[in-house]
Amino acid sequence: MKSKEGRLPTDCPVEFSQIITGFSEEAKVHKQSSQGKHVDQYQTKSPKSRSIRQRSSSFVNGKCKSKETPLSENYGVDEMNSKLDGRNIGIRNLPHQRELLNAKNGIHFTVMVAGQSGLGKTTFINSLFATSLINDNIKENRPIVRYKNIIEGDGTHLRFGVIDTPGFGNDMDNAFTWRTMVNYIDEEIRSYIFQEEQPDRTKMIDDRVHCCLYFLKPSNKGIDALDVLTMKELARRVNLIPIIAKADLLTKHELSIFKMEIREIIRVQNISVCCFFDNNILDATKDIFQKFPFSIIASKEYVLNKKGEKVKGREYKWGTVEIENEKHCDFKILQKILLDWHLIDFVESTEDYYEKCRSEMLRTRLLKARDCLTTNTVEITDEQRKFLQEEMNFEDIEENKLKNYKCYEIINKVIMDKVATEWDPEFITRQLEAKKRFNDISNQEILKIKEWKKSLFMKQENFNQEIEELNHNLENLQLECQDLEYRLLMDKSSNHHSTDSATLVNVHIKR
Ligand SMILES: Nc1nc2c(ncn2[C@@H]2O[C@H](COP(=O)(O)OP(=O)(O)OP(=O)(O)O)[C@@H](O)[C@H]2O)c(=O)[nH]1
C-alpha cells in the first residue's frame, strides 16, 4: 500500500491497511481473477474477506436484496451460465464484474465530523485512520476544513475525505451555526450536478459527503437544543451517526441511561439517523443497533494494558481504557462499520439521495424558466423569451423532452446559486426579522406622527377658539363703538336742535 496526496505519512497506511484488510484482500481477488484464473468469490482463504464480499453485494440502496444466495438462483437462470476458458460467464458472474468495476474505479468516501468544540473530533479521526491526518497543533480558523487522501493497494484505491468542523457552537449566537455544515453538503451536491453537465467529465471532483458522525457531549442531562436542531437538519441530507464522545467520562450505568435517553430524543424529534442498522438486516447488524448510539473513546497516546501490551488508550489513577477494546467502548465497531461493513452502503445511499436532488433541481430549473415569463427576476433575451413562450409546454414538462435542455441552459449555476441563497433559511429568517424591525420602527414613527398631528389639531382648535373670541370681542367693541357713535350723534343732534331753538328765540327777541 502506498499513500499519495494529503498529509498521511507514507509509513502510516501499514496500520490503515489492517483497518481496511477486507478492501485490500478483495483487491487481490480482483487481480487474480482478472489474470484469467477463476477465483470463487465465496472461497477465498480469509473468512473475513468472504463476509465482507457477501455483505457488500447483499446491500443495494441500504436494503437487503439477497443475503448469501447467488443472483442466478434468485432468477432461476442457472442454465444461462456457461464456462469459457475456465472463467464463469453469464449472470452468475455479474456481481463479480461489478466488483471489478468498483475496484477499477476506486471508491470515494467522505465523512464529516460534527459536534460542539472540544469533544475530540480531531483525536477520533486520527485514531480512526491510525494517522495524524488532522494536525491538532495547527488548527485552522475556518468553520469547515477539508482533508483528502488516497490509499492505493493491489490495483484499487480508496479516496477518502474528512470534513472537520472546528469551533462549532462557539459563537455567541448559534441559531444558524448548523447552516455552515448543511450549506456545505448542499453546495457539494449542487456542484456535482452541474459538473455532470460539462462535456468533459473525466476531471469531475466528487466531494459529496457520505456520512456524518455527530459528536454528543457526555452528560447525563440530555442533549442541547443546538445538537437536536443540527442533527435534524443533517439527517435530512446525509447518513447521520450520532456518537457519544469521551465515553470514559461516564460510568457504565450513566452511559447506558444516556444511550436510552438519546434514543428517545431521536425518536420523539423524528431525527432519521443512518438506516443501515434497522431490523430488516443481518443479525450482526441487529446487534449493532443495540449499541446505538456508539460510545467513543479516542486517544493519540499509547498505554500498557493489563497484559503488558502497548495499546492506544487513556491512563487514569483507577486504571486504563483501551480505545480498541470492545468492552471499553464502541470505537472498533464504528471503525468496522465505516471502513469495512457498510462502506459501499454509504456510497450507494448517497447516490440515491443525489439522484433525488438532481431530479428536484432540474424540475426547479424548469419552473424558474416558466417564471421568467411572468416576473423579471432573471434577465433573458428576446429570443429566449420567444422560445419559452412558443416552444415550451409548462403544463406537461415531460412532453417537451429534449427542449427542456434549453431551460437548463437559461437557468444556469449562477442563477441557481442565487436561488439557493434566497431560499436559505437564515437569509429568509434574517429578512423576516429585518422586515419586522422595519415595521416596528415605521409603526412607532406613524404613531409619533399621529400624536403630533393630534396635538397640532388641538393647537389649531385652541387658536380657532381664540380667534373666535377675539372676533367676538371685536364685534362687541364694534357694537360699542357704533353705540357710542350713535349716542354721540344723538347728543350732537340734540345740541344742534337746542342751539337752533335758542337762535330762534334770539331772532324773536330781536324782532
Ligand atoms: N477524556 C477524553 N478526552 C478526549 C477524548 N478524545 C479527545 N480528548 C481530548 O479532548 C481535547 C480536545 O480534543 P480535540 O480532538 O481537539 O477536539 P475537537 O472536537 O477536534 O475540537 P475543535 O477542533 O475545537 O472542534 C484534547 O485534549 C483531547 O486529548 C476522549 O475520548 N476522552
Automatic annotation (TrEMBL):
PROSITE patterns: G_SEPTIN. Residues 453-487 form a coiled coil. Residues 105-364 form the Septin-type G domain. Residues 27-72 are annotated as: Disordered. Pfam families: Septin (PF00735). One of its GO terms (cellular component) is cellular bud neck. This is Septin. GO terms for molecular function: GTP binding. It comes from Saccharomyces pastorianus. PANTHER family: SEPTIN (PTHR18884). It comes from the Eukaryota. It is found in: Bud neck. Residues 32-46 have a biased composition (Polar residues). Belongs to the TRAFAC class TrmE-Era-EngA-EngB-Septin-like GTPase superfamily. Septin GTPase family. Keywords: Coiled coil, GTP-binding, Nucleotide-binding. Transmembrane segments: none annotated.
